[in-house]
Amino acid sequence: MKDNRARNAEATEADAALVARIVAGDRGAFQQLMRLHNMALFRAARAIVRDDADAEDVLQEAYISAYRHLAGFRGDARLSTWLTRIVINQALARLRARRRDNVVALIDDRAPGAAEAMEQAMDEDPGASPEAGAMRAELRRLLEKKIDALPLAFRTAFILREVEEMTIEEAAECLAVPEATVRTRVFRARALLRASLAEEMDMATADVFSFAGARCDRIVAGVLERLRVLDASAEGAPPT
């Protein structure tokens, strides 16, 4: 517990120092901030808008807004939390604009407002075989598809808690909902994902070691040929 408090204090000091440099006009410090938070913020945006290009646009708009408001950052929350709330607001605004989702009230209207850019995510293990890499990529695509299918409130809480590994308290602060609500949403998201993946597994199981088409024809032809040879041998005629 003490170690956690010490780490949090160090992180808060580092946040304050970085913000001070940016406010003083250090663009290199702002670039450092973006690279530090890009992946987590992209995932938060992507969880809401469900589109890579839209998520990048959300981040760019959000970073611009964050840059303009950094002078007002007082350190009442972690910088990462403050940025995440800005990204969530920006992503929800985009959803409302395109009317693709039934947007639930994830956060209140008083939260600060905006953010930018993205760094490319999750490179494959360079030591993995091409087959293992392809399988991992396919599994990731399947999981991403299933997460995208979750209701907005569930998938956002799931990404913050399970993918970004925020604490319940941090996720609740980002979403401006009670901690119990975060727990409920994450629990429901897990349950829905398990059910959906199990259904996918059931459908795929029927096709495992598929036995049709060319393989079926080849085996039937092979057996018939062997029977023909056996029949010819039994009749004393040389097989042709």
What would the keywords be for this entry?
240 residues, 9 helices, elongated, mainly alpha, Rna Polymerase Sigma Factor, Chain: A, single chain, 71% helix, 0% strand
Structure overview:
With about 240 residues, the protein is mainly α. The protein has two domains: about 1-120 and about 125-205, Orthogonal Bundle (Rna Polymerase Sigma Factor, Chain: A); about 210-235. It is built from nine helices and no strands. It has helices spanning about 1-25, 25-50, 50-70, 80-100, 130-150, 150-165, 170-175, 180-205, 215-235.
First-residue to last-residue Cα separation: 84 Å
Quantity of strands, as a count = 0
CATH architecture identity of the largest domain? Orthogonal Bundle
In this structure, how is the largest beta sheet organized? Answer: none
Compute the gyration radius: what is it?
Answer: 27 Å
* Overall average pLDDT: 79
Explain briefly what this protein structure is:
The protein has 240 residues and is mostly helical.
